[in-house]
Structures are given as structure tokens and as C-alpha cells.
């Protein structure tokens, strides 16, 4: 089935299956020590997800602690400059901690407490997930240990300071490429060692089952709100959705509630310097299926199955893996994945700042760059929703300033 | 031909002593030097040898094997090299050989191609720490077609029900991870280790190999009464960090000492 478009009835789309597979993708490729922990997590999640008390507490915190719903903002100036579709920005940057990552960490923190786990392990790339973990850990009295590639601690030093202020322990990772991939390796090694008292709070729709399911469900609020908000303004569904994809949590959160509609969807990856292996993070558009961090999905690898380092100006996209559900949706042809280069993302970073007075995260700037390319292909009556997944005041590293 | 692991499991008895299972990363510190190490293990009486396939992201391994794997990969070691190495060993030695590596290089090679190459080279079994039994169907099918054993791992927190499932999928041996953690850590072997190993043995009715954190004659002897075999990896890898004859000699005397202590 792989490699070719499949006919899928998205009206009845109900993946993953019970064993955590999205078609061929997903599953659970982990050391045996983690199997009981994943089973326990899955059972706790499935119970909580249908529990009204859990849902109402989750909703309450999203609303009152995190500031949901986030606005759906009509970017009128950007739209008229591009001369095509009406562009709406889903303002995840306005939520607490400045990105969509808080949706997931609130959900997982509630789950950790139900499971009686007091120690939280996490990885972070840009620091946005780590910040969201440190935040909920502070609020709920949990101990957070955040693994972060040494290189990322340097280019996102402000987030390191914020995490430490909130009481989290940030551990720089010096193995491998010193970025997100290696931070996940270290987080998993910690989890294998401390499996009995620790909860692994993964930040994206990656990893073994049930993480891709669970994180998606916690992030679906983005798409559910956007759908309702767009309907209220336009009395229609959007013609297209655009979101950046690293592991793919903000994008699946926005896309998932629209899978059964006719809306076109664009996942935008980090094209890095160029599309030669090692110089980019365009896993879905340039990679091939393989097993990394516990699941089968598109990855960046060499001909021997060794994982290739990724590269991107955006630390949150700088990852050689992708979510298994994205891998499935790519093969189905339901979502179009492509990449924009570092230079295009930096140009979009500047452009949105100057036209709308909104400084986007360098990750989200990839989605802005894509909408700048496609807006004119749509009618003026069409609407496109772009997920503005995070704010850019973290992004004044040397690379970004130099690019600007 | 009968699988050498089958013969080993049938002919070995705890009464005769404990099997010694050394591990080394292929291609570390160089391909030639690792071949010397594997030859040394065979000459000095290893019962089964684990040949590590290096992987870029070995998440069940501690820092010693991570670094050794990186060095091997920087030398350009690939599966072709490893199958050639196995063929060289097979010209002289009949000791059972097991490849130990992560799922992705096997998947990328092509599952059925990998197992037929194993058979052709003279490999008897594989250990794939991140291949959970529930994902293993296609791998097991190819392994069986090629008369290759798949040795699964169990951990101290593995449930009774799952031990039975793993035993059903295993032919001769089960690999018991001694502790929570990755390979090569300095550990105090837990008090309830005996109970855990006895539980696995009783429920699985398979021979059990114990590994992770065994780094000395003392720790090997402590575990020997409860296991059919002892796996030692990081401690041997550490000794071979220099690509010189002196390191090989040190490795030989360290190995010989443990070998003698495990014989009855």
C-alpha cells in the first residue's frame, strides 16, 4: 500500500487502530522496559479521555490558565498585498507561554497527576515545549527535567533562562548532532532508567503509541476552534490550511478536525540551506519510511538506515523524524507536504512583522512563507487559515539576526 | 543445518557452569581490530558471541557503546562489512554468532534480504532491543524461513503474561535485562534480581541470558547461580578504546579471568 495514494473514507476516519498503527505507520518500537509504562499510559489516557471530570478540568485550564480560545485574526494587510485569498491567522502565539505547546502539556500534566507520577521528563528543541513543561510543572508541583541539545541551548538561551526560573532542570545534550533528535534519545534513556516514578511528556505527535494519538487529541482544540470561528465569520469552510511541521503537533491539531471536509492542507517543513541530505529538515517531502524514536514514519536516513542529522534555522523543525499520522496522510495524498528554505522563512519572519505588526516564531514563519507563495492561486473569496503556532520574541539568535 | 544456538541450548546445563556471552561493536575501534577481538573471544572459549551492528541513535545503550558505535560509523562500517566479518570468523570458528542491532538498519536493508544474508554468512541469531514482540511478525517470519533465532528481551517490570508471550516467540534463549536503565551503567544489582530471574525461567522454560551492568568477575559470579549465561558488553568495549596490541592483550586477560571463574 505504501508509496501510492490510497482511497480513504475520511468521514469514518478513526485511526490509529488499537495497536497504534496508522496504516503501516506508527506502532511501538521500544525496549521492553518501556512496554509496561506505555500500556499504563494508554490505559490512563483512554480512561481520562472519556471522563467528564478530566474533560472539564482540561477545558477550564485551557480557558482560564492558557487563555483559550485564541483569536482567528483576519490579516487584511497581508491578504491585500498578496492579492489572493483572505488570510486568517490562528493566533496560538497569544496563548500562555507563547505557543500551542501548552495545550498538550496541560493535558499530559493532568494525566501524570492521575497516574501519581511526580517526576516529568521532557525534550525540547526550540525550548517552547520545554517552557510549556516547566510551566505546568511549576503550577502542579511536579519536578521537571528537560533535555535540550547543547546547540539549541545556545540559540534559544532565553527559553533556557525561563525554564530555569520556573524551577525546571535543563540538561544540555552533547551527544550526536546536539539538537532535538539527541535530546529525545537522552530523554528516552532517562525514562528507561527511571520508568517507575517518571512520566515522559513528549512534545509532539511522534514516539511510540499512544503518544501520537494522545498529543493529537490534546492539540485538536486548535482546529476545532478555528473551524467554528471561521464558520462564524465566513459561513463557510476554509479553502486551505497551512501549518509548519517539525514532529507535526500544531499542524495535526489544526488539520485533524478538517480531514473529512474538502479543505486543502499544506504541511510546511524546514527546507534548511538546500535539499541535500544533512542540510534540511524536510522529512516528509524528502525522506523515506523508517523507525526512529519508537515508531515507523518518514525519517531522514542514509542508505544504511543510519539517521541523518537534520538542519533548519528553526530549532523546533530541526528533527529528522515526523509523526506517523502525517506519514499516513502523506501516502493517502490528503495533505501536501513541501518545504521552504531558511532564507524564505527569514523573509517571511520580517514580512509578517512589518505588514501586520506580529513577530512570528521562526518555525511558524515557514507557514507564512508558504502562504505567501500560494495565496494568489486562490480566489479572493477563498479563506486560508495559517497556524501561527508561536511568537517570535525568542528568535533573536545570531543566525536569525544575520539572516535579517 | 541445525542452528548452533539450538545445539548450545540443548547441550548446555547450568551444572557445567555458566555460559559467557561477550559483546563487541563491529568496526570499533577499526574493523580489523574488532575482528581480532571476536577471534579472541572464540579462541578463549566464549559460548556465544554478540556482534554489535552500530547505529546512529542507540537509545538502549549508555555512553560507552554510543561512542563506540559513533567511532565505528565514522570508520564507514556498514552491513556488508559486518557480513564479511562474520564470514571470516566462520572460516575458523563454529561458536554461535548473534548480531545485535537496532530495527532501522534491518528495516532499511529489507527484512527478508537481511535474514537471508545472515543465513548465508553463518549468523545464528539476532537481538534487536527496540523490536517489541507486537511489531515483530514480519521479522520473525523471515528469521524462521532462514533458520535464524530471534532473541527477545525481558525487563524486571515485564508482566507474567508477557513473559509467556515472549517465550512462545523465542526458540532457545531469552535475554533478561538486569536493571532499569541502559547498557554499561555502574549499578548495584537489585536485591530482588534472583526472584525476577527465577520468575522468567519458570514462566518461559527457556534458557536465560542476563545482561546490562555486568562489568567484573565479581558481578558475573554474583549472577551466575541464577542464569544460564552472562552477557558482558560495555566493560569489554571500554578496554578496546585504543587501537593497539596492548588493548587486545588486556582484553584477553580480562576475558580469560572471567571465563575461568564461570566454569565449574
**Category from helices, strands and their pairing of chain A:** alpha/beta
Largest sheet of chain B: 9 strands, parallel
Classify the beta-strand content of chain B into a percent band: 5-15%
Count of helical stretches of chain A: 16
Mean pLDDT of chain B: 95
Give the tally of structural domains of chain A: 2
Counting DSSP H or I runs of 4 or more residues, the number of helices of chain B is 12
Largest interface: A-B, 36 and 40 residues
How is the secondary structure organized here?
The complex is a heterodimer of chains A (about 400) and B (about 260).
Chain A (H helix, E strand, L loop, with lengths): L20 E2 L2 E2 L7 H16 L2 H13 L7 E3 L1 H7 L3 E6 L9 H14 L4 E6 L3 H13 L2 E7 H6 L1 H9 L3 E5 L6 H14 L4 E3 L10 H9 L1 H14 L5 E5 L4 H7 L8 E7 L12 H4 L1 E5 L2 E5 L24 H9 L3 E5 L1 H15 L5 H13 L8 E6 L9 H6 L1
Parallel strand pairs in A: 4-14, 5-6, 5-8, 6-7, 9-10, 9-14, 10-13
Antiparallel strand pairs in A: 1-2, 3-4, 11-12
Helix pairs in contact in A: 2-4, 4-5, 4-9, 5-7, 9-11, 10-11, 14-15
Chain B lengths: L3 H8 L7 E7 L5 H13 L5 E4 L10 H12 L4 H14 L4 E4 L2 H7 L1 H11 L3 E3 L9 H9 L3 E2 L2 E2 L5 H10 L3 E5 L15 H12 L2 E5 L5 H7 L5 E4 L1 H6 L5 H18 L2
Helix pairs in contact in B: 2-4, 2-12, 6-7, 8-9
Amino acid at each position: 500500500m505504501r508509496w501510492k495514494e490510497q482511497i480513504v473514507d475520511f468521514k469514518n476516519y478513526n485511526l490509529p487502530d488499537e495497536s497504534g498503527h496508522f496504516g503501516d505507520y506508527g506502532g511501538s518500537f521500544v525496549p521492553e522496559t518501556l512496554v509496561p509504562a506505555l500500556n499504563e499510559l494508554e490505559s490512563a489516557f483512554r480512561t481520562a479521555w472519556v471522563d467528564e471530570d478530566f474533560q472539564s478540568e482540561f477545558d477550564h485550564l485551557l480557558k482560564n490558565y492558557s487563555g483559550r480560545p485564541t483569536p482567528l485574526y483576519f490579516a487584511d494587510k497581508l491578504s491585500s498585498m498578496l492579492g489572493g485569498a483572505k488570510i486568517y491567522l490562528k493566533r496560538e502565539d497569544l496563548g500562555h507561554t507563547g505557543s500551542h505547546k501548552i495545550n498538550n502539556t496541560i493535558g499530559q500534566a493532568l494525566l501524570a497527576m492521575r497516574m501519581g507520577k511526580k517526576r516529568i521528563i521532557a525534550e525540547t528543541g526550540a525550548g517552547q515545549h520545554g517552557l510549556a513543561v516547566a510551566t505546568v510543572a511549576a503550577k502542579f508541583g511536579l519536578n521537571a527535567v528537560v533535555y535540550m541539545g547543547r546547540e539549541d541551548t545556545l540559540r534559544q538561551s532565553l527559553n533556557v533562562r525561563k525554564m530555569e526560573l520556573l524551577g525546571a532542570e535543563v540538561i544540555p545534550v552533547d551527544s550526536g548532532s546536539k539538537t532535538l533528535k539527541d535530546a529525545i534519545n537522552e530523554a528516552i534513556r532517562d525514562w528507561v532508567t527511571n520508568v517507575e516514578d517518571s512520566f515522559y511528556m513528549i512534545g509532539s505527535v511522534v514516539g511510540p503509541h499512544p503518544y501520537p494519538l494522545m498529543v493529537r487529541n490534546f492539540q485538536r482544540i486548535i482546529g476545532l476552534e478555528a473551524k467554528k470561528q471561521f464558520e462564524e465569520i465566513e459561513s463557510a469552510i476554509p479553502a486551505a490550511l497551512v501549518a509548519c511541521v517539525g514532529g507535526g503537533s500544531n499542524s495535526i491539531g489544526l488539520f485533524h478536525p478538517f480531514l473529512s471536509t474538502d479543505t486543502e492542507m499544506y504541511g510546511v517543513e524546514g527546507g534548511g540551506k538546500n535539499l541535500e541530505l544533512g542540510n534540511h529538515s524536510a522529512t516528509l517531502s524528502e525522506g523515506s519510511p523508517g523507525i526512529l524514536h519508537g515508531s515507523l514514519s518518514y525519517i531522514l536516513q542514509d542508505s544504511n538506515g543510519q539517521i541523518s542529522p537534520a538542519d533548519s534555522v528553526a530549532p523546533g523543525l530541526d528533527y529528522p523524524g515526523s509523526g506517523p499520522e502525517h506519514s499516513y496522510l502523506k501516502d493517502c495524498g490528503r495533505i501536501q507536504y513541501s518545504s521552504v528554505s531558511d532564507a524564505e522563512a527569514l523573509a517571511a519572519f520580517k514580512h509578517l512583522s512589518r505588514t501586520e505588526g506580529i513577530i512570528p516564531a521562526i518555525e511558524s514563519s515557514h507557514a507564512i512563507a508558504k502562504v505567501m507563495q500560494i495565496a494568489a492561486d486562490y480566489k479572493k473569496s477563498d479563506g486560508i487559515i495559517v497556524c501561527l503556532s508561536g511568537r517570535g520574541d525568542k528568535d533573536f539568535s545570531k543566525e536569525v539576526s544575520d539572516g535579517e | 543445518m541445525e542452528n548452533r544456538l539450538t545445539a548450545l541450548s540443548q547441550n548446555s546445563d547450568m551444572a557445567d557452569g555458566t555460559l559467557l556471552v561477550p559483546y563487541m561493536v563491529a568496526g570499533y575501534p577499526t574493523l580489523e581490530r574488532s575482528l581480532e577481538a571476536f577471534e579472541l573471544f572464540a579462541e578463549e572459549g566464549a559460548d556465544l558471541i554478540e556482534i554489535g551492528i552500530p547505529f546512529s541513535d542507540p537509545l538502549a545503550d549508555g555512553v560507552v557503546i554510543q561512542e563506540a558505535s559513533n567511532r565505528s560509523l565514522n570508520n564507514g562500517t556498514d552491513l556488508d562489512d559486518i557480513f564479511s566479518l562474520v564470514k571470516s570468523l566462520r572460516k575458523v570458528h563454529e561458536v554461535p554468532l548473534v548480531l545485535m542491532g537496532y530495527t532501522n538498519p534491518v528495516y532499511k536493508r529489507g527484512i527478508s534480504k537481511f535474514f537471508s544474508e545472515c543465513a548465508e554468512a553463518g549468523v545464528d541469531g539476532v537481538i534487536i532491543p527496540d523490536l517489541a514482540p507486537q511489531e515483530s511478525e514480519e521479522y520473525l517470519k523471515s528469521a524462521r524461513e532462514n533458520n535464524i533465532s530471534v532473541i527477545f528481551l525481558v525487563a524486571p517490570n515485564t508482566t507474567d503474561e508477557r513473559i509467556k508471550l515472549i517465550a512462545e516467540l523465542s526458540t532457545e534463549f531469552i535475554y533478561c535485562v538486569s536493571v532499569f536503565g541502559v547498557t554499561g551503567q555502574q549499578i548495584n544489582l537489585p536485591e530482588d534480581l534472583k526472584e525476577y530471574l527465577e520468575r522468567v525461567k519458570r514462566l518461559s522454560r527457556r534458557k536465560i541470558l542476563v545482561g546490562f551492568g555486568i562489568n567484573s568477575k565479581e558481578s558475573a559470579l554474583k549472577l551466575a547461580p541464577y542464569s544460564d549465561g552472562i552477557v558482558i558488553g560495555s566493560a569489554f568495549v571500554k578496554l578496546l578504546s585504543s587501537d593497539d596490541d596492548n588493548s587486545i592483550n588486556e582484553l584477553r586477560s580480562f576475558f580469560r579471568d572471567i571465563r575461568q571463574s564461570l566454569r565449574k
